[in-house]
Write a structure and sequence with these properties.
This is Mab-21 like 3. It holds the Pfam family Mab-21. InterPro entries: Mab-21-like_nuc_Trfase, Mab-21_HhH/H2TH-like, MAB21L/cGLR. It is a single chain. By secondary structure, the protein is of the alpha+beta class. It folds into 2 domains: 215 residues, 2-Layer Sandwich (Beta Polymerase, domain 2), CATH 3.30.460; 109 residues, Poly(a)-polymerase, middle domain (Orthogonal Bundle). It has 8 helices and 14 strands. The model has no long low-confidence stretch (mean pLDDT 92).
Length: 362
């Protein structure tokens, strides 16, 4: 039985990376047709939600977290001219609108409140009580409305044999049967805030050498998103900014992207397989960004074996410590809500690999 060393991995796995890309592309193609059909129907039911466009190239509304787990951002309409909240105040309401004797906790890390008055223009529907409490647009109520719309759309579009709504979850998840395998989608209503950078994202950091200042300004011009995926607080997201960083990794001819692709393949096949893995491609992407920032020079990314092992060591450190800082919002730990036992299992596999960097025949 022949084992592959890190030196062999580059050639062997890159062929598998290409095959994976083809399989994922086919799944994305099938999924986005379904999503476009569903969200077009949803938009016709409720003007506050916009259809996810169909794209022949890259679709920025579809994020592949794992081969069978996609994040779908569904744009919200009727909110324009975003401004940061001018003053802080306590909230004393439940999701049912009753009064509380003590205030709700303040948002932390990637979370924030969202008031309808933060927008210079807003549809009157965003002031309605089905989504609004005391002037706040409440994500849990938005999700409740959205879930009913998704359920109606599946039935109206005659997709019941292909798409099923997954229950017992606060977020809106559906399972889609593709020609190859089943894919689970999290459909997330999303407020897109272009051209404005969040004050919570104190980036770039002092004396940061990667990316360049010109690239930083370009990335910040894409703004950020707010995702409805919890009860009271909206979650900050920087999907566009992260995609720009990924697309322009190796302008100097380095092997950053190659290292990321091979690490992702090993994660999915060996270190953390499964339909809903504790480690997603977004975690790996964040590890890559931090490593690129620490090692900004071309010479650090010339030799694949050295660069790849450096990246795996960084991943092992974060997983074993149960701590991975968000790249743009440093006081947010991306592992805060993950299962520690599952993280420990992955950490053990990574430690075994690093002691003897080789794998069995693929």
């Amino acid at each position: 039985m022949k084992y592959l060393t890190v030196g062999d991995l580059e050639d062997c796995l890159l062929n598998k990376v290409d095959l994976r890309r083809q399989q994922i592309s086919q799944a994305v193609e099938e999924v986005q047709k379904v999503v476009h059909h569903l969200t077009t129907n949803i938009s016709n039911q409720d003007i506050r939600f916009q259809a996810v466009p169909y794209s022949d190239t890259y679709n920025e509304n579809i994020k592949v977290l794992a081969p069978s787990q996609f994040l779908i951002t569904v744009p919200i309409k009727g909110l324009a001219g975003y401004r940061e909240a001018r003053e802080q105040h306590w909230r004393y309401y439940t999701l049912q609108g009753t009064r509380l004797p003590c205030p709700l906790r303040d948002p932390e890390g990637l979370q924030q409140w969202l008031e309808v008055e933060q927008f210079m223009k807003s549809l009157w529907q965003w002031h309605e009580t089905d989504v609004n409490i005391d002037g706040d647009i409440v994500p849990a109520k938005v999700l409740l409305v959205f879930r009913k719309l998704v359920e109606n759309a599946i039935r109206t579009c005659h997709l019941s044999g292909k798409v099923s709504l997954l229950g017992n979850r606060s977020a809106v998840w559906v399972a889609v049967e593709t020609s190859a395998y089943q894919v689970e989608l999290e459909l997330v209503p999303t407020v897109e805030i272009p051209t404005t950078w969040s004050k919570k994202a104190r980036w770039p950091r002092c004396l940061q050498r990667w990316p360049s200042q010109e690239r930083v300004e370009c990335i910040k011009s894409f703004g950020f998103n707010l995702l409805a995926c919890s009860n009271y607080h909206w979650q900050l997201s920087f999907l566009r900014a992260e995609q720009v960083l990924l697309e322009q990794l190796d302008e100097d001819g380095g092997c950053r992207r190659k290292c990321f692709q091979v690490m992702r393949h090993l994660k999915e096949d060996i270190w953390c397989p499964g339909n809903r893995p504790v480690i997603t491609s977004h975690h790996l992407q964040t590890v890559l960004f931090w490593t690129c920032e620490k090692y900004p020079h071309f010479k650090d990314w010339q030799v694949f074996s050295k660069a790849f092992l450096r990246l795996v060591r960084k991943l092992h450190k974060c997983v074993s410590q149960h701590f991975l800082k968000h790249y743009f919002v440093r006081n947010s730990n991306l592992f805060q809500c993950t299962n520690p036992t599952e993280l420990d299992t992955v950490a053990q596999k990574l430690a075994t690999f690093l002691k003897n960097p080789q794998i069995g025949p693929l």
